[in-house]
């Protein structure tokens, strides 16, 4: 199996909108997406066919994925104390945990655009933020943690013996995310309670990481419980934002990676092939299969693609 990213055998169904066809508001949002996400994206340029979606997508997506550090005042969860307390507007979960969750559901859904882009984002994020002083060790851990989320047949492997040292927070979030992707109706009260309990255990460290521990009223059980609930809401929303929305949307429209500096303002395929370790690229290729769209993975499982009458629209 090749190490290079498998290229689709068919094209996208909705070509990204050229910058020249964006109005000023959409182009400004496009520039904001580049500033935040790091690259010009076909996600945004496909969404740009619907201006209101494009304009609102960037702050919305940032609020659940990237934003952190903005605080607000809320009524004190400890009603006996009363008054208000400082509280984050977003960023309840750390970026490493978020990228693990995004990657696992995208891999399980075999959603090409999410797999390729969040493999790069996830690998860079983990390589930078994992708590080891040595950059080479962080990179090795990043590779192992992303590789062992699922195997080349799309089976979750993060819980197997010999998996990398995921924390109990990582595992709690990955378990709920994978279970949600598989069958949201199958989620039980106990699963949610157990996840919330783990989040509650980690809430004090997250509160300190936000710098909230310097403010009065943030060290009470009621505040910790409120913060853990914010973590749970963010976790479940992040999961379904990808598993139930973006993964499916990319798959339906066959959203393709940015392949040309001339047409797409970046050659993302080269970025992917030169950034992502070969072990992960091979696993991803197995899931994307010979068509490159994930509809015929190399292990022969998964839904079979139907002949489509949808042809690319002329932008």
Quick tags:
mainly alpha, two-stranded antiparallel ribbon, 12 helices, disordered C terminus
Task: Give the strand order of the largest sheet, numbering strands 1, 2, ... along the chain.
Answer: 1-2
Main beta sheet: 2 strands, antiparallel
CATH class: Mainly Alpha
Provide the domain count.
Answer: 1
How far apart, in Å, are the first and last alpha carbons?
Answer: 35 Å
- How many helices does DSSP assign? 12
CATH architecture: Up-down Bundle
Q: Helix and strand string, N-terminal first?
A: HHHEEHHHHHHEHEHH
The CATH topology assignment is AhpD-like
The secondary structure category is: mainly alpha
Low-confidence stretches: 300-315
Q: Could you give a quick summary of the protein structure above?
A:
With 315 residues, the protein is mostly helical.
Can you walk through the features of this model?
This protein has a single domain (19-288), classed as Up-down Bundle (AhpD-like). It is 55% helix and 4% strand. It has helices spanning 24-37, 42-47, 51-65, 95-109, 112-129, 135-147, 168-182, 189-209, 221-253, 261-264, 268-275, 278-288; strands spanning 71-75, 84-88, 259-260, 266-267. The strands form 2 sheets. A two-stranded antiparallel sheet has the order 1-2. It has a two-stranded antiparallel ribbon with strand order 3-4. A hairpin with an 8-residue loop joins strand 1 (71-75) and strand 2. It starts with 23 loop residues before the first helix and ends in a 27-residue tail after the last helix. Residues 300-315 have low confidence and may be disordered. Residues 291-315 are annotated as: Disordered.
């Amino acid at each position: 199996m090749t190490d290079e990213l498998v290229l689709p055998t068919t094209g996208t169904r909705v070509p990204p909108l050229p910058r020249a066809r964006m109005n000023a508001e959409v182009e400004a949002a496009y520039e904001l997406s580049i500033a935040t996400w790091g690259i010009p994206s076909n996600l945004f340029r496909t969404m740009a066919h619907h201006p209101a979606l494009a304009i609102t997508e960037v702050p919305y997506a940032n609020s659940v994925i990237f934003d952190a550090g903005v605080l607000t005042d809320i009524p004190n969860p400890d009603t006996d104390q009363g008054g208000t307390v400082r509280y984050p507007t977003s960023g309840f979960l750390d970026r490493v945990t978020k990228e693990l969750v995004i990657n696992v559901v995208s891999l399980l859904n075999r959603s090409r655009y999410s797999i390729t882009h969040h493999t790069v984002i996830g690998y860079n994020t983990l390589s930078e933020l994992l708590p080891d002083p040595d950059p080479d060790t962080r990179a090795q851990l990043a590779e192992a943690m992303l590789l062992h989320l699922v195997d080349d047949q799309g089976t979750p492997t993060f819980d197997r013996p010999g998996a990398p040292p995921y924390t109990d927070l990582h595992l709690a979030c990955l378990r709920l995310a994978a279970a949600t992707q598989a069958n949201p109706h199958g989620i039980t009260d106990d699963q949610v309670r157990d996840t919330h309990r783990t989040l509650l255990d980690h809430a004090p460290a997250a509160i300190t990481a936000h710098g909230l521990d310097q403010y009065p009223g943030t060290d009470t059980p009621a505040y910790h419980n409120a913060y853990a609930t914010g973590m749970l809401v963010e976790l479940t929303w992040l999961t379904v934002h990808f598993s139930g929305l973006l993964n499916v949307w990319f798959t339906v429209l066959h959203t393709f990676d940015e392949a040309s500096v001339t047409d797409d303002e970046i050659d993302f395929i080269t970025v992917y092939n030169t950034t992502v370790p070969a072990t992960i690229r091979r696993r991803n290729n197995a899931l994307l299969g010979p068509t490159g769209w994930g509809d015929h993975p190399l292990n022969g499982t998964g839904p079979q693609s139907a002949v489509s009458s949808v042809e690319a629209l002329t932008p």
